[in-house]
Every structure is written in structure tokens, then in C-alpha cells.
Amino acid sequence: MEPDGWQRLSDSEDEEPPAPPPACATCWRNLAGFWLLGLCNNFAYVVMLSAAHDILSHQGAPDINGTTQTPPVTPPSRNSSNTSRYDCNPISTGAVLLADILPTLLIKFSAPFYIHRVPYGPRVALCILCAWGSFLLVAFSTTVGMSIMGVVLASVSSGLGEISFLALTAFYPSEVVSCWASGTGGAGLLGALSYLGLTQAGLSPRHTLLLMLSLPLAMLLSYYVLLVPPPAVPQWRWGDSAVLHDPLPAARQPLMAGAPAKQGGGAAELTLQAKGRIVKGLLKYLLPLALVYFAEYFINQGLFELLYFRDSALTHAQQYRWYQMLYQAGVFVSRSSLRCVRIRHIWVLALLQCLNMVFLLAAVYFMFLPSIYLVFALVLYEGLLGGAGYVNTFHSISLESPPEEREFAMGVGCVADTLGISLAGAAAFPAHDYFCRLP
User: Fold this and answer.
1) Is 368 helix (H, G, I), strand (E, B) or coil?
2) pLDDT digits over 333-377, tens only?
3) What is the C-alpha to C-alpha distance for residues 414 and 163, in angstroms, rounded to an integer?
4) In 170-271, where does DSSP find H-type helix?
């Protein structure tokens, strides 16, 4: 029996009027489901970046009672020479960024060429298990290496989830794309704000991470309970993936919001040549998006730690957490703005983000900004540009891709932001070392 809201036409009903669109309850369940999936999918990734400063400089060790000892207060400078003008960790926070993004990059580069053969059910189950493992491993680790392994698990969960859920939007009306994007923005805001708020309230990083174990459970309920999958989606049986390669009979095509042309999953498997043609056609979106994300994550993981105001009432760690929270607030607002503002020229956002990066790079070198509140405003602006680049890119890809190519196009589109983030993490290392050696 088909889920409520999904209708089939039998051979004997070919002459009857078209079936009505799905029930409003089903539409709202799908919209809410994709919003929550975006929230849950990116949550662990965001929390690991918000905790990057703590992971590298405040690695707690369990005492004899099993509780986390409070780390000592860090001195004004942590570099070996003790003469730098900056308050530097021995390792750039770009290390956490690379651990949080390189596994995602590997998944996204390779997955569009084989992931369609794996049913969605096992994919989502793996995402949930990796998210749980990431929180537990980082919470109970006593070395930076163990924490980095936990960050890698968060990356696997986020990367596999993003490419799977974006591909899954091809089976639904295009409105779910904006809900997914808004949910990922909400993950940034909620993840950074919850980590900031709980640690500001006096909770240790370990107990803060343990409280966040409920988010993978929310992903489980969102996908397996809340979302209403159409008949064409391959769920658990590996044989179900054949629906992605063999055209569905007309009688089995799902009718969604009266727009069956919007759906994916009803076309034969794309050839390698066709995939190459699709990627080439997407470059006008992929390259600007990669540049947007390179600039903003170079700011986040290469410059945030160096934008330290010694006369502020906030400690260095608290300043870093506030930067992350304000950035994510900007991302959430802009990723939720598609119904109000549509930006077709992504290169404009890339140019503005690069100018923002150059200005903050100069601010770090010359140290001319008089107040941390100016940095707060610039970081919020940075998040607005990044979120706008993401949601407008994927909305444009969804609208412009033919139905038979949309699932692959949405999957390959999410490689761009990951590539930009990875390059930013690599660039953060030499930048960190250069600035921290300055007298």
C-alpha cells in the first residue's frame, strides 16, 4: 500500500482525470523532514569547528573519579618562542578543519559515480552511527589524535549525508531544496550557539558534547518516521536501486504537487560521457561557490584565532566561539532567505567574500581594528555571503537540470563547497605559521 499522499494510476484508470496533488499533511511532513535532516546532518560538523580551539588547546584528561579535570588557564602566548604578537596554538585550527572536511571531499568526489547503487536506508543509518561515534570519541578522548579521529567520523557523517539528501531532493518538489538549505543553516546557528552557551554556562566541553547525542536520534526519526518517501526511492533492498536505471512505467510514476516533471529516478543510468557533460555545464555555479567557501573558511580557520583582542572581557576561547556563532547566524539567515531574495550571479558573492578575506587578512597583519564589535559585524556579513552562495547555487541547479539528470547534478554540485573548504584548510597552515612567527 502506498504512503498517504502518493498516488498511482493503474492501467484501467488511464482515461480518468489526473489524481489530485498530495495531501497538505504529506507536503508539510516532507518540508519539515528535509529541514530537520539539514539541521541534524550538519550539526556535528559545526560543533567540531566550534570546538576546534578547545580540541587543540584544552585537551582534558580523566581523573581517578572519571570526571574531566579543568584545564589550566592558558598563558597569553603559547608559541615556543613566546615572542609573537599573537596568542597562537602550536597547531592551526585548520588541522581540525582538514579532519572535518577531507573525508567529506573524498566521499563527494567519488560518490556521484557509484552512490546511486546503494539504497538510501543503509546510507542514512551509516550517517547516524558515525555522528554518534564522533560525539562519543571526542567527548572521551584524552589526546588530540583521538579527538581528530572523532572529527573524521563527523566528517564522514556530514559528507555522506549531504550528497545523499541533496540527491534525494530530486524525487521531491523543488521546494524541499530551500528547506534543506535552511536546515543546514539552522545547524550552524544551533550548533555554534549551543556549544557557546553551554560552555559559557560552565559545562565542560566533554559534557557539552554528550548532551548533543540526541541530534543523531532526531535524524533517525526525521528520515524513517517523518519523511514520506515516494515509491521510486530505493530504500533497503539493494535490488531496489534498479529503479534508478530502468524507466518507471507510467502507471508507477508518483504524482507530487501535480508536477511529475520535477522528479528524478525515472531515467536510465547516465553514461560517463553524459556525466562529464553535466559537470562541464555546472562549472558556472561550481567555481564561484568553491571560491566563496575558500574565502570564508580561510577567514574562519586561518584568521579567527589570530583576531584576538586582549583588552576584551572575553577570553581567547570565548572570542573564538563568538566568531563561530555569529558566522553561523549569518549563514542561517541567508540560507533561509530564498523566498525573499534570489541571486543568480554567484560570482558577485564570490567577489565580495574575497574582498572580505583580504580586509580581515590586512586587519590581522596590521592590527588596526579598534574593537572586537567591528569583527563581530564582519563575521556576520561573511556568513550572509556564504549562506546566500550555497542556497542560490543549489536552487539554480535544481531548476535548470533536466529531470533525468537532476539527481546526479545535485550530488556533484555539493563537491564545490567542500573543495573550497579543503583548500582553505590547507592554506590556513602556512598562514598560521607565518603570523605566529612575527615578533
Assistant:
1) coil
2) 998 888 888 898 899 999 999 999 999 999 999 999 999 999 999
3) 7
4) 175-200, 205-211, 214-221
| DSSP H stretches of helix in 111-143 | 120-140
Q: Are 324 and 192 in contact (CB under 8 A)?
A: yes
Read off the DSSP letter of residue 79. Answer: S
Supply the range of the domain harboring residue 97: 23-61+85-235+271-436
- CB-based contact 258:22 (threshold 8 Å): no
Amino acid making up residue 181: A
Half-sphere exposure of residue 128: CA atoms within 13 angstroms, side-chain side: 18
Closest listed residue to residue 365, CA positions, set 79, 85, 93: 85
* Residue that is written with C-alpha cell 532526531 in the block: 218
How far is 65 from 63, CA to CA, in rounded Å?
Answer: 5
Q: Is residue 243 assigned to a domain?
A: no
- The total number of structural domains that make up the chain: 1
Q: What is the pTM of this model?
A: 0.69
Instruction: For residues 68 and 358, give the distance between their C-alpha atoms in angstroms, rounded to a whole number.
Output: 40
- Choose among 335, 328, 347: nearest CA to 290: 347
pLDDT digits (tens, 9 = 90+) for 68-125: 444 443 444 444 445 567 887 777 666 777 887 888 888 888 876 778 788 888 999 9
Q: Please tell me the total number of residues recorded for the chain in this structure.
A: 439
Residue 430 is placed in which grid cell? 602556512
Q: How far apart are alpha carbons 132 and 159 in whole angstroms?
A: 15
In a domain, 225, yes or no: yes
Residue 395 is part of a domain; what is its CATH number?
A: 1.20.1250.20
Question: Is 27 contained in some domain?
Answer: yes
Residue 152 is assigned to a structural domain of this protein:
yes
What is the amino acid identity at position 235? Q
**What is the H or E stretch that residue 409 is in?**
helix 403-413
pLDDT tens across 131-163, in order?
A: 999 999 988 888 878 888 988 999 899 989 988
Q: How far apart are CA 257 and CA 147, in angstroms?
A: 46
DSSP-based three-state secondary structure for 68: strand
Torsion sign, CA atoms 333, 336, 339, 342: positive
**Are the beta carbons of 289 and 390 closer than 8 angstroms?**
yes
Mean pLDDT, range 19-40, rounded to an integer:
81
